[in-house]
């Protein structure tokens, strides 16, 4: 399935998103790793972002709040598990970081050189197929991720 130039594949408890960007791998990695860039594009349509703290190292944490267009704030906490610049960023989404969130998954963000640009491969891995289905039904996770990647694309237009 392709929407917003995002190819999406669902297999069991995993969702794979792929999109080509006409920018260097180094730039694409940078906009995924620096709070000042993330504030400009992170999240689905209509969301804004506030980073509380970010330690972009293996084992480091990123705590942030996604401000929804409905006025609701969504606290998030991520732990980076494996970073290799400019090749990939792996992390665990730990919910809201306060033990009150019901959304936990792992993500692999891979940056592959492709011709003059870079292919982004984003894999989300949920504890089970049922959990993926529940999170998608409750939060619109798959559509939100497509919009997330679409907003990244819009932001990258500023660098051309």
TrEMBL record:
<dbReference type="InterPro" id="IPR023393">
    <property type="entry name" value="START-like_dom_sf"/>
</dbReference>
<comment type="similarity">
    <text>Belongs to the AHA1 family.</text>
</comment>
<dbReference type="InterPro" id="IPR013538">
    <property type="entry name" value="ASHA1/2-like_C"/>
</dbReference>
<protein>
    <submittedName>
        <fullName>ATPase</fullName>
    </submittedName>
</protein>
<feature type="domain" description="Activator of Hsp90 ATPase homologue 1/2-like C-terminal">
    <location>
        <begin position="22"/>
        <end position="157"/>
    </location>
</feature>
<dbReference type="Pfam" id="PF08327">
    <property type="entry name" value="AHSA1"/>
</dbReference>
């Amino acid at each position: 399935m392709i929407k917003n130039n995002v190819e999406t594949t669902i297999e069991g408890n995993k969702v794979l998103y792929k999109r080509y960007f006409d920018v260097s791998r180094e730039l694409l990695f940078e906009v995924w790793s620096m709070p000042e860039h993330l504030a400009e594009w992170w999240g689905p349509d209509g969301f804004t972002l506030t980073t509380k703290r970010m330690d972009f190292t293996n084992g480091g944490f990123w705590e942030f709040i996604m401000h929804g267009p409905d006025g609701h704030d969504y606290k998030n906490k991520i732990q980076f598990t494996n970073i290799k610049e400019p090749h990939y960023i792996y992390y665990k989404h730990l919910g809201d970081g306060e033990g009150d969130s019901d959304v936990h998954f792992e993500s692999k963000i891979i940056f592959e050189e492709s011709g003059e640009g870079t292919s982004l491969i984003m894999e989300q891995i949920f504890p089970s197929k049922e959990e993926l289905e529940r999170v998608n039904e409750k939060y619109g996770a798959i559509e939100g991720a497509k919009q997330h990647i679409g907003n990244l694309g819009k932001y990258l237009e500023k660098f051309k």
